[in-house]
Each structure stands twice: as structure tokens, then as C-alpha cells.
From TrEMBL:
It comes from Borborobacter arsenicus. SUPFAM superfamilies: Multidrug resistance efflux transporter EmrE. This is DMT family transporter. It comes from the Bacteria. The chain crosses the membrane at residues 37-56, 68-91, 97-116, 123-145, 180-199, 205-228, 240-260, 266-289.
Amino acid sequence: MNRLQANLVLLLAGAMWGMGFVAQSTAMDAITPFFFTGLRFLLATLVILPFALREARNAPVKLQKTNWLAFAWIGLLLFSASSVQQIGLLTTTVTNAGFLTGLYVVLVPLFAVILFRTFPHPVVWPSAITAMAGIWLLSGGALTAFSVGDWLNVAAAAFCALQLIFIGRSAAPTGRPVTLAVTQFAVCGTIGLAVAIAIEPINWMAVWLALPEILYAGIFSGGAAFTLQVVGQRYTTAPQAAIFLSSEAVFAGLFGALLLGERLPASGFLGCGLIFAAILAVEVLPAVLSRRSTLTP
């Protein structure tokens, strides 16, 4: 897989996540957040497990203990991001949640520099800022007064950024992206269900009421999209991946209009344009500048 194909894979993951925002929001009308998180990621585990087993049979070398620990750590980050985002949706709007979670676009290169002294291609910084401006416009150009849910979505953005960085450091060296994905799903789902049993009222009728959302969030925005993210990140950098995945805000707006009757203002369409401009800049400019430097005598 080349870098262009990897970035298109990440774009598809962003589309699935955009649709997932609608499912996550409507599911909260029937089911509690930790119970929903546990069920969706245990379902994702079951869906992707056969592909992970096939990958393991074809793998040239076995994974080491350190690899499994790294995969489990990524699963803990996924649980942290998913659960606080899900709780945040109880007390904030989908618009605010979409914008604030999108902060990971800027946090990924920032955390990469702070934690590992890894500096991205210079084009990533203006592209990240452009994508953030696009997400801001997509939210209507204004946020209501910050609630607890808003701050939880800021925390979710930080956990998403860390997850992206550590996937980037684990997926390519091990050559086992599907195994990584299944491991993070299993860790996230197990912790989510355990916390739900401990602190939430378990209502099995709620599972039936939220079944369409659970199925979509588990199979598509959970299992398929996160697996595509891990596979795509083997062939691109974490900062570039963050830019492409930020397209989820565009798709969330699109699916919100189609399924919930929401309508984008003119600023929202401008925001979509800025996000896609950032995506194109990250994809095209490094190749153009590299070719120009090669041709320069």
C-alpha cells in the first residue's frame, strides 16, 4: 500500500466515524454510556477477530510481550477517549462535541514533539490549523458556554491524539495491524463492560432499543473504521493521519443533514472546504516539494 492509498483508507475511516457520531448521540436516549462503550467494542472484537487470527497464521514472527503490552496500552487510550466522549455527549451538543474532539488534529503533532521529539513535515502545522479553522466554521463559528461535557470532549481529544501517536509507533514495526486493532477493541470493551456492571444500572431492554446504534458503532465505526485507521497508519505519519481523520467532522455534518434533518449554514460549507484543503495540502505538497528539490541542480 502506498501513501496515497493509506490516506484514502484513513479518509474512509473518517467517513465511518462521522456517521458514528449520529449513532452515538441517538443511542444515549436509551442506553448508559459505559454499557454502550463495552457492548460496541466487544462486538467489534468478535467481528474483526477472524481476520486477526488469519493474520497471525501468516505472520513470519511471533509478537513479543512488549508488543502485547503496547497494544493493551493503546486499548486503554481508546477506552479513555471513547468513554469520556460518550459521557460528554450527555451534557453537550453534537456540534460542540464534534469541534472539541477535533482538537486532536493540533494535539497530535504537539504531543509528538513533546513526548518523542518527532517533528512533522512543515506543511502539517498550517494544515492542522486550517483543518481546525474548518471544524470551527463547521460548528457554526461559535461555541456555547462550556459545560462539563465540553471539557470531557477536550479530554477525549487528548486521548485520541495519544492513541494516534502510539498506533503510529506500534503498527508499522510489528506488521500486525489487525491484531493491534482487535487487542485494543477487547481491552476497551472489557473495561467498559466491567465499569458498567460496577456503576451503571444494567437494563437489557435498553440493548434492544439501542440495537441499531450498537450494531453500527460496533461493526462499522468501531470494528471496521478503527481497523482501517491502524492499517492506514502503517504507511503514513501520525500528524498526516490526524488531518485525514479530521474529515469525520465533514461527514458528521453530512449525515446529520441526511438522517437528522440538520442543515449546514454557509459557514459550514466553507468549513468543509477548509478541511478538504488541509487534506489535499498534506497529500500533495510534500510530494511536490520533494520532487522540486530532487530536480533542482
